[in-house]
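Reopening this one. Same input as before:
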Amino acid sequence: MNQNKKAIGQQIEQYLRVPFYLSLLFAAVTILVFFMDQRAGIAVGLMTVLYIIVTAVLYYNAGPKITNELVSYIFEQGQIQKHLLKELSIPYVLMDLEGRILWSNGEFGELVGKEMQGKKMIYQIFPELSRNAFPDESGKHSIFVEYKAGNYRVEMKRIVVGELAEAENNPMGLKDNSMIALYFYDETALVAYREECDNQRLVAGLIYIDNYEEVLDSIEEVRRPLMVALVERKVTKYMQSIDAIIKKFEKDKYIVVFQNKYAAKLQENKFSILDEVRSINVGNELSVTLSIGLGLGASNYMQAYEYARVAMDLALGRGGDQAVVKDGEQIYYYGGKTQLVEKSTRVKARVKAHALREIILTKDRVFVMGHKIPDVDSLGSAIGIYRLAKTLGKQAHIVINESTTSIKPIMNSLLSNHSIYGDDLFVNNEQAINLVDANTMLVVVDVNKPMLTECEDLLKYVKTIVVLDHHRQTKDTIKNAVLSYVEPYASSSSEMVTEILQYIVDKPKLKPVEADALYSGMVVDTDNFVSKTGVRTFEAAAYLRRSGADVTRVRKMFRQDMETYKLKAEAVRRAQMYMDEFAIAICPSEGIPNPTVLGAQVANELLDIQGIRASFVLTDLHDKIYISARSLDNLNVQVVMEKLGGGGHLNMAAAQLTNCTIMVAMDQLKALLHKMKEEGDI
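Same output, byte for byte:
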């Protein structure tokens, strides 16, 4: 803008100098003609003098008039612009770079009213318009503000006032010749329309009864219709309260459709239908539980249904009795407070076993991989899959980078049988990646999060992946698995693998050391068959016992030395009570081969103390804080650990924290427990 003004000024100046330039030209012509002809030169000279006199007279008489006309024109233009800004229908403000209001039009005065009195800074009226929100030298910036129940889009533009700072008088004291112009566009109606459109958007949902057959089998036949009617009535009444359309498409499955404005209400009451249905009692031994999946934030109906289906898969993968809401890329969990009920039928295990066998038969090499810092369950289930692959005549390897104290007895037993297993039973990450080819498959056991696997890069190189796990699923799961068998009700991955081995038609015959490894995984994950055990757990243990597992030999393998036992006892002694029901302890890590295992053992020991509902043990290892959580009754430590980035089971979970000290981690844990206790989440 300033450059344009300078260009116009130069043009006017050049225009006014034309007569002067012509006078010089005529003088030069006069001299030239005089040398050619004196009489002609005198005549031309007289004409030139006359021209100069006339031009001087015109300059003297008309110059002030021209100047006055130009000044008047510029003044009138300025007044017009000022009038237009003053009467502009959009609130308009000029302020300096500090946020001080220099000038505003009438519309802005009507907008803020008495708020202007005594307030010179823009952020005193609009807190959102802090100095951090001002535009930089690039020029423009937009921000949304709320004011007096209205919504405004504020366009801010940085403007430069030409050479004002260099002038002698600068009453406004502008810095860097700059001001900021603000335009307030009222978008209250637009925001209301958008909100209304968002509220009217349809949400798709799925509702499944988790244990329909099991509950009906637990009551008398004459009461079964009553049970079904009560469940259906509660579900229908709950959904009709939000003006939803609900339709049963199978005996234990419903589909619902409702407006998006009611989704917040369901989330606010944390899907109270879960508790209502669970409270139904007509003589049934088992409580009825529901799984709910909702899809929000979809651009069309098909995507909304797909979101609901993904949410339902997560709810079922986490054991049911909960609601999962998928809002775009965000996942929210509600419920999941009850103990998972073991399924009496083994149809799913048989189907998965058959599918796994068919996949293995199509490949030449099988890798088996557990999680980082492998435990006995991870190694035991990996050995079970290894034996299956070898029975089917395939090359098999177990991916392990380090031998922790907890798995060293089993690894030593396997390595001592060199003639049976050879040198390639265990491979590290680099060796595994080098061996990958098109006919390679990968079986991931005891973990379903990519970042927690022993070798996350291996997931990118292998195209055929199978997942076998007993931990609750989260949104961060292995996405490209051709076969996924995740059962949170199972006590351990070793139990799941043992069941699969029983349904393989080739009947893999376990060696005693392999049976010991699978049995050890079940013993450790169930805390000697005390936690998460069901009928199928003991049936799997019986199969392993028949396959050569020795209870005494397993017990001897996992005995502790005196120093480690003393450290565990000391950690228990120093444990502190929090809120009269949570035990929090710090497990030492210096000089201990595997402190995380010791921390888990301390957490189990603390549960034997009367009055403790849940225990949390923190261990500092490799610049990370490991938290082992255990609980009794229906207190769900998995939801606690999940909020810290971890996961696990209802009664057994863990998490890892980075970039913090052990005391900071303890304060975070206490604050989280206090908050969740107040909100009724635990």
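So the earlier flakiness isn't reproducible anymore. For the record, The CA atoms of residues 61 and 445 lie 102 Å apart.
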